[in-house]
Specification:
Layout lengths: L4 H5 L11 H6 L3 H8 L6 E4 L6 H8 L3 E6 L2 H13 L6 E5 L2 H4 L7 E4 L24 H9 L5 E5 L5 H10 L6 E8 L2 E9 L4 H5 L1
Parallel strand pairs: 1-2, 1-4, 2-3, 4-5
Antiparallel strand pairs: 5-7, 6-7
Helix pairs in contact: 3-4
Bound molecules: S-adenosyl-L-homocysteine.
Length: about 210
C-alpha cells in the first residue's frame, strides 16, 4: 500500500494534525526527525525554530525535556495541538519568541536548529550558502546557539555548501567534532543534518 504524503510528515496525521501553509513545506519528515532525536535521548533540548512541531514532538517522544521556540504565535498553537495528538505536550515548554534574542538567557544540553531556508525556492540555487538562511546567516545563528552549548544539531538544505558547514566546526574555539549525514525519504534526499559536539556518534561512544 502506498504511504500518503502527509503521513510521511506525521504518521498520526489523520488523528487531527494541523498545519499552515509554511508548515506544509517546512516541517521535517517524521522519519528524519526521529533519527535526529535519537542522538539526544533524555536530554534537555532547545528547538529554536519549532514550526508546527515536527522535531519538538520527536525529541519529546525520545524522553527529552524540550523548550520549543517560534517567533510566530500561530506556529506555537499548531505545535501544541500536534504535540497533544502524540501525547507529549507535558514534556514541552512552548515559547512564542525570537530564538536569537532569547538564546543568551537559556540553558540546555542540546540546541536543535532548523531555521527557515527562505521558502521552497532554496532548490533553485546550485549551492546553498549559509548566508541564505533566515532570519540571519548561518554563521550568526550558529554563534548564538554556541553560547548555550557546543552540542548543536542543524538541519539544512540538501544543496548546502558543505565546506561552509564544516567551517562552523573549525571556526569554533575549541574546534568541535562534526558529523554530517544526508537524510532520505523514499530514496529522495530531503536535507542534510550536521551534528556538532557530543551529538556526533564518535563522541557519544567515549
Ligand atoms: N522543524 C520545524 C520546521 C521549522 S520551519 C518542523 O518540523 O515543524 C522554521 C520556523 O522558524 C518557522 O516556523 C518560523 O516561524 C520560525 N522562525 C523564523 N524566525 C525565527 C526566530 N527569529 N526565532 C524563532 N523562530 C523563528
Amino acid at each position: 500500500m502506498e504511504t500518503k504524503p502527509q503521513s510521511l510528515l506525521f504518521s498520526l496525521y489523520d488523528e487531527g494534525i494541523q498545519m499552515d501553509e509554511e508548515g506544509w513545506y517546512s516541517v521535517t519528515h517524521e522519519e528524519i526527525a526521529i533519527r535526529q532525536a535519537q542522538r539526544c535521548a533524555s536530554r534537555v533540548v532547545i528547538d529554536g525554530f519549532t514550526g508546527v512541531g515536527g522535531n519538538a514532538i520527536q525529541f519529546a517522544r525520545m524522553h527529552c525535556k524540550v523548550v520549543a521556540i517560534d517567533i510566530d504565535p500561530r506556529k506555537i498553537e499548531l505545535a501544541l495541538n500536534n504535540a497533544k495528538i502524540y501525547g507529549v505536550e507535558g514534556q514541552i515548554d512552548f515559547v512564542v519568541g525570537d530564538f536569537l534574542q532569547q538564546a543568551s538567557s537559556l540553558k540546555a544540553d542540546v540546541v536543535f536548529l532548523s531555521p527557515p531556508w527562505g521558502g521552497p525556492s532554496y532548490k533553485n540555487v546550485k549551492k546553498f550558502t549559509l548566508d541564505l538562511l533566515k532570519p540571519k546567516d548561518g554563521y550568526s545563528i550558529f554563534r548564538i546557539a554556541r553560547k548555550i552549548t557546543p552540542n548543536i544539531i542543524m538541519f539544512l538544505p540538501r544543496n548546502v555548501d558543505l565546506r561552509q558547514v564544516k567551517e562552523l566546526a573549525w571556526l569554533s574555539n575549541p574546534t568541535l567534532p562534526i558529523e554530517i549525514e544526508g537524510n532520505y525519504v523514499e530514496n529522495n534526499l530531503m536535507g542534510i543534518t550536521a551534528y556538532f559536539g557530543n551529538t556526533t556518534r564518535t563522541s557519544r561512544l567515549r
